[in-house]
User: What shape does this take?
Amino acid sequence: MLPYLTAPRLRFYQQLLSGGSGHVLPFSKCAGLALTGALLVTLVFPPAASAVKAKRSHAAEQKTIRLQQLVALQAECATQIARISKAIQELTEAKDEKPSESLFAEFELWERLELIAAQLQSVVEVRDEIADKLARSKERCQQLARTGVNLPQPYSFLALDEARDQWLVASRRRSAIELELETERSLLIEAKDQLEDMEHDRRLAKEAEESGTGGELPELRRALSLAELRCRTFKFDVTLHREHLKNLNQIAGLAQTEVEECETIVLLISKNVLFTQDDLYQRIAFVDTQEKLIRKQLNLAEERLRIATRSRSQDKEQVSGTTPESIFAVARKEVQLLQQVLSEVGGVRECWRRRFAFANGDFTPDGLDDWLDEALAAGQRIEHLSEKVQFRTEQRQNALSADLRKSVKFMTRLKLSEMKNISLS
Assistant: This one.
């Protein structure tokens, strides 16, 4: 079939290239056959760009279908939630029959499924954006390798220092994403285990429903329906974790590319760098500005500590709760941290002066050992202080996150409790 389909076109290109009508073209017969073969390959096998375009079009179509399904699922959940709310309200108003616990359980499952569907929709929607960022980051790396850094040479030492800072930030971001990947893998395994348990309960409910007789059948069917809904919810929960893990893998790739981009910039700048007096003045001015901000924060923290101290003393006299004590402890810790940060500012300023002197050869060999020892000691102190500040920040963020989760759970329970109280009244 293939020779039959390609033969007319092949004869046409052979005549065209070899002068089939008596006209001699500026090609030899061999050259004509070679070009004919190349054209034949183009006709029979589509170009790689076309294949990539077709693949992307298929992926976009699949994504659209997936999003439509998720929107339809959310609509279904909203319909079921409205139906169950109406049923509970009708049973409450009729006062002939109280809403069953299974009805409240079904209501909670539909709400959870609606939330999972919304989260899954968000995860699917951002995937293309992550892929685009990854492609642009790779393109920037290739551009850097070809053209270098778009800065006047010799490069400023501040540009090198900023490039190193960016590399450090990118490296920490990559480490954080790797930790998040590990956490998400654990959550996926946990979700799969929970799904297996739900599937086991569903099979038991199915067996009970099939062997049930008489008046117990409605209750058994109700239990089976709940078990199936619970399995459906947990299946989507597993899908959510799996899709989120795919996104995190892409984000991890993006973070790695950003680290490589920063490493390339540092390498290129470090080949031709000059530390000038203006660079030193700019950096010292920046340190001075940061010192003013830290002092301002310290003044505010000390004021909060004074207020907490007064509240703590009053609380001891009144022998009341422990809240003022905890506020006092937080305020005192904040003041201590800021004082420690402020104590290192002078050393940072001196470090920049020594870096300038070293870069310009204005030093004596005997003093280098002392500089190195002092710099290492200061680096250890600052690293330890940075870890303490980071730990304190994470503690605060975790506390806020825990408070938010408690608020959501509280509102959910309050909503269900109100519905139950209404049904019992």
Q: What stands out?
A: Residues 122 and 324 are 42 Å apart (CA to CA). Confidence is low (pLDDT under 50) at residues 1-45, 317-322.
